[in-house]
């Protein structure tokens, strides 16, 4: 008989997603270009992942008393998540490069034995063309899986496919 360890499953850590206010990075009075990032997480069978934990991290603007720099959201019955934040700016990359504005996303979910890392870049952002990490992905279709698309005023959509056709690019750390 084997027993799952903390590293083998997200549970029983669901207390991580019991605080919906953590999905609002502006809750302490952050200033900047407000936006909402929404998305849907689906598995390889195209079913919604209804109990995932999604973490959003951003290096810009700098974290401080009015802006935590990270947030956490749960997915609903349709696999949808939502964050309220401010648009990030470019940040330094390796050497003298600039990274395009982006969010770092971490996912925990049933059947995922360790967190998955990915990024959400912004469609139409000029620095996407020279972003060092984004340009490591040669296949244009795979690269497109890292691009959030506008969906209304100040709303961006970043759907995540865990495996199979259209699988999102995940980053090895």
Characterization of this structure:
The strands form 2 sheets. Strands 1, 2, 3, 4, 7, 8, 9, 10 and 11 form a 9-stranded mixed sheet that branches. The chain has a two-stranded antiparallel ribbon with strand order 5-6. It has one helix at 140-144; strands spanning 34-42, 53-57, 70-74, 80-86, 91-92, 98-99, 102-108, 116-122, 147-150, 155-157, 160-161. A hairpin with a 4-residue loop joins strand 9 and strand 10 (155-157). The protein has a single domain (14-161), classed as Aromatic compound dioxygenase (Protocatechuate 3,4-Dioxygenase, subunit A, Sandwich), CATH 2.60.130.10. The longest helix has 5 residues, at 140-144. The two termini are 31 Å apart. Mean pLDDT is 90; it is low at 4-10. With 173 residues, the chain is mostly beta strands. The chain contains 1 helix and 11 strands.
Features:
1 helix; two-stranded antiparallel ribbon; mainly beta; Protocatechuate 3,4-Dioxygenase, subunit A; 9-stranded mixed beta sheet; 173 residues
Mean pLDDT: 90
CATH superfamily: Aromatic compound dioxygenase
Total discrete domains: 1
Strand content: 25-35%
Q: How is the biggest beta sheet arranged?
A: 9 strands, mixed
CATH fold type: Protocatechuate 3,4-Dioxygenase, subunit A
What is this structure, in a nutshell?
The chain is mostly beta strands and 173 residues long.
Topology overview:
Layout: E1 34-42, E2 53-57, E3 70-74, E4 80-86, E5 91-92, E6 98-99, E7 102-108, E8 116-122, H1 140-144, E9 147-150, E10 155-157, E11 160-161
Parallel strand pairs: 1-10, 1-11, 8-9
Antiparallel strand pairs: 1-4, 2-3, 2-7, 5-6, 7-8, 9-10
